[in-house]
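Go through this:
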Amino acid sequence: MQSKAEIDEVLRKTSEAKEIPGIVAIAASGNDVLYQGAFGKRDLSKPDAMTADSVFWIASMTKAVTSAGAMQLVEQGKLALDAPIGSLLPDLAEPQVLDGFDAKGEPKLRPAKGPITLRQLMTHTAGFAYNMWNGDLAVYLEKTGTPAITTCQNAALKTPVMTDPGTRWEYGTNIDFVGKAVEAVSGKRLDAYLRDNLFAPLGMSDTGFKITDDMRKRLVGMHARGEDGQLAAIPFELEQNPEFHMGGGGLYATAADYIKFTRMILNKGRGNGNQLLKAETIATMSQNQMGDLNMTKLATAAPMYTNDVDLYPEQVKKWGLSFMINTAKTAEGRSAGSLAWAGLANTYYWIDPARDVTGVILMQLLPFADGKCLEAFAGFERGVYAGLDAESGKKAA
């Protein structure tokens, strides 16, 4: 790829300047790996250099994987996108909406106006929130002593919805319930289901909820950016013996493994010689599934963990099953109708079927939507498209 040196330069410079501890990036077409690079350190408090096979907590990049697993079960008729999910998950049978707080500061709840569906869960329109972007939910958790979702305790899932199902987009714990639905109809725990039906067939041997001894040798440390902009290594690890596997954010993986998943989406459900999902299922997952609703800005309620998130503020964003869809071409070159999302510790991916390209860039620091990380991502993505444009220019000539 002509622009490999340019991408290398962008990513090397930011890691050498200690703006970002370390980065692994990989881009591919349906057939070929177009770019791969690793820069900086796995952990600023240790000497180990970042390597291409380094293991990251990919957080919400888990969501698309869990949803793909659920869509296999939709194909088999074991799950239905529009049936009330409460018949399968009793906790969701009678959803309650948080209707503010009374004079004493106690939460007020009212019954939701309609049932929750699998489609709503996958599009983040069921009403569930995350406390880091919803201050009311943060207050509710505190008042009721409900544990945070990252504890992976079943009690963490017992929260009200913030709005009536199907009435607005709100990013939240929805996909954790998709994981529970997968378990309910498959009779397997989520880790075993995903391993048997996605990871093993795709050859994703470095992906899982549990960090194996082999993965631990290559594990990337978590970092935090202080208010002065300086980075420090911080202790962080998800519960390794969880009550439930967090379908919305529990996976650890390498960039090379995750791109096997995104290429399967790019190749209409086919990967590593196996057809994991039907082409028409991929088409459904890749289309707007939220009707007239739009994705909205995420305003932080926990600045330690996340900045405000407003990707491509100039354009309308939709949601598929379960990807963000940009509706216009981006400044970096991503085509309209591409799929993308991210993970809390600044891990990002995109899938552009129109240009037959997908990319993954992994970093490991908080807060999310970090300015330096977004710059590195944009530089990487621009370089990938510059390389594609140069190639197509050569062919045309």
User: Anything to note?
Assistant: The domain at 4-56+220-396 is CATH 3.40.710.10 (Beta-lactamase). The radius of gyration is 20 Å. The first strand starts at residue 22 and ends at 28. The chain has a mean pLDDT of 97.
